[in-house]
Here is the input.
Amino acid sequence: MTDSMKERVKSFGGKVDGDLRFTIQWNEDGHDNCDLDAHCKEADGFEIFFGSAKKPSRSKTLGQLDVDIIRPDGKVAVENITWDSRRTMKPGDYTFFVHVYSGSARNGFRAEIEFDGTIYSFDYSKSM
Here is the structure.
Protein backbone atom coordinates (compact mmCIF):
# COMPACT_ATOMS: atom_id res chain seq x y z
CA MET A 1 0.00 0.00 0.00
CA THR A 2 2.80 2.43 0.83
CA ASP A 3 4.19 2.64 -2.71
CA SER A 4 0.74 2.94 -4.27
CA MET A 5 -0.26 5.78 -1.93
CA LYS A 6 2.89 7.75 -2.76
CA GLU A 7 2.44 7.02 -6.47
CA ARG A 8 -1.18 8.18 -6.33
CA VAL A 9 -0.11 11.45 -4.65
CA LYS A 10 2.50 11.99 -7.37
CA SER A 11 -0.09 11.29 -10.09
CA PHE A 12 -2.16 14.20 -8.72
CA GLY A 13 0.88 16.51 -8.71
CA GLY A 14 1.68 16.19 -5.00
CA LYS A 15 5.12 16.05 -3.40
CA VAL A 16 6.36 12.95 -1.61
CA ASP A 17 10.02 13.82 -1.05
CA GLY A 18 10.00 16.48 1.68
CA ASP A 19 11.20 16.04 5.27
CA LEU A 20 7.62 15.59 6.56
CA ARG A 21 4.57 14.25 4.71
CA PHE A 22 1.01 13.44 5.83
CA THR A 23 -1.18 11.57 3.34
CA ILE A 24 -4.68 10.12 3.62
CA GLN A 25 -6.33 7.71 1.21
CA TRP A 26 -9.94 6.52 1.01
CA ASN A 27 -12.63 5.17 -1.30
CA GLU A 28 -10.62 2.07 -2.14
CA ASP A 29 -13.80 0.11 -2.94
CA GLY A 30 -15.28 2.93 -5.03
CA HIS A 31 -18.34 3.32 -2.81
CA ASP A 32 -17.21 6.00 -0.32
CA ASN A 33 -17.63 9.03 -2.58
CA CYS A 34 -17.30 11.46 0.30
CA ASP A 35 -14.98 14.38 0.97
CA LEU A 36 -12.38 13.65 3.64
CA ASP A 37 -9.94 16.41 4.53
CA ALA A 38 -6.37 16.15 5.78
CA HIS A 39 -5.51 18.67 8.50
CA CYS A 40 -2.38 19.54 10.46
CA LYS A 41 -2.17 21.81 13.47
CA GLU A 42 1.40 23.13 13.48
CA ALA A 43 3.50 23.86 16.57
CA ASP A 44 2.56 27.57 16.46
CA GLY A 45 -1.18 26.73 16.34
CA PHE A 46 -1.68 27.42 12.63
CA GLU A 47 -3.91 24.83 10.99
CA ILE A 48 -3.18 23.59 7.49
CA PHE A 49 -6.29 22.46 5.62
CA PHE A 50 -8.19 23.27 2.42
CA GLY A 51 -9.11 26.76 3.69
CA SER A 52 -5.64 27.93 4.72
CA ALA A 53 -2.53 26.58 3.02
CA LYS A 54 -3.88 24.92 -0.10
CA LYS A 55 -1.57 24.99 -3.12
CA PRO A 56 -0.25 27.51 -4.14
CA SER A 57 -0.45 29.00 -0.60
CA ARG A 58 1.87 27.87 2.22
CA SER A 59 1.99 28.24 5.99
CA LYS A 60 4.70 30.32 7.68
CA THR A 61 6.70 27.09 8.12
CA LEU A 62 6.21 26.34 4.41
CA GLY A 63 3.75 23.50 4.97
CA GLN A 64 1.27 22.99 2.14
CA LEU A 65 -1.80 20.96 1.24
CA ASP A 66 -0.88 20.13 -2.35
CA VAL A 67 -3.52 17.50 -3.20
CA ASP A 68 -7.18 18.07 -2.28
CA ILE A 69 -9.70 15.58 -3.69
CA ILE A 70 -13.27 16.82 -3.23
CA ARG A 71 -15.21 14.24 -5.28
CA PRO A 72 -13.63 10.81 -5.74
CA ASP A 73 -16.26 9.84 -8.37
CA GLY A 74 -15.70 6.13 -7.75
CA LYS A 75 -11.89 6.37 -7.74
CA VAL A 76 -9.39 5.98 -4.92
CA ALA A 77 -8.80 9.43 -3.42
CA VAL A 78 -5.85 11.04 -1.58
CA GLU A 79 -4.99 14.28 0.17
CA ASN A 80 -1.43 15.30 0.96
CA ILE A 81 0.34 17.82 3.21
CA THR A 82 4.12 18.29 3.02
CA TRP A 83 7.02 20.35 4.32
CA ASP A 84 10.12 20.48 2.14
CA SER A 85 12.60 21.04 4.96
CA ARG A 86 12.57 20.82 8.73
CA ARG A 87 14.78 23.94 8.78
CA THR A 88 11.65 26.04 8.14
CA MET A 89 9.54 24.19 10.73
CA LYS A 90 9.09 25.43 14.28
CA PRO A 91 9.97 23.04 17.13
CA GLY A 92 6.99 21.48 18.88
CA ASP A 93 4.04 19.22 18.25
CA TYR A 94 2.41 18.77 14.86
CA THR A 95 -1.06 17.21 15.17
CA PHE A 96 -2.51 15.40 12.17
CA PHE A 97 -6.18 14.55 11.81
CA VAL A 98 -8.89 13.74 9.29
CA HIS A 99 -12.18 15.64 9.04
CA VAL A 100 -15.27 14.33 7.25
CA TYR A 101 -16.26 17.40 5.25
CA SER A 102 -19.25 15.80 3.47
CA GLY A 103 -20.84 12.40 3.07
CA SER A 104 -19.78 9.35 5.04
CA ALA A 105 -16.86 6.98 4.73
CA ARG A 106 -18.25 3.55 5.56
CA ASN A 107 -14.81 1.97 5.23
CA GLY A 108 -12.70 4.62 6.95
CA PHE A 109 -9.33 5.62 5.53
CA ARG A 110 -5.61 4.87 5.49
CA ALA A 111 -2.94 7.38 6.46
CA GLU A 112 0.82 7.74 6.26
CA ILE A 113 3.13 10.05 8.11
CA GLU A 114 6.63 10.08 6.65
CA PHE A 115 9.37 11.83 8.58
CA ASP A 116 13.04 11.75 7.73
CA GLY A 117 12.57 8.75 5.44
CA THR A 118 10.61 6.59 7.92
CA ILE A 119 6.97 5.84 7.06
CA TYR A 120 4.38 5.31 9.78
CA SER A 121 1.18 3.72 8.42
CA PHE A 122 -2.27 3.86 9.99
CA ASP A 123 -5.50 2.12 9.06
CA TYR A 124 -8.87 3.35 10.38
CA SER A 125 -11.43 0.85 9.13
CA LYS A 126 -14.52 2.07 10.98
CA SER A 127 -17.41 4.03 9.52
CA MET A 128 -17.13 7.81 9.78
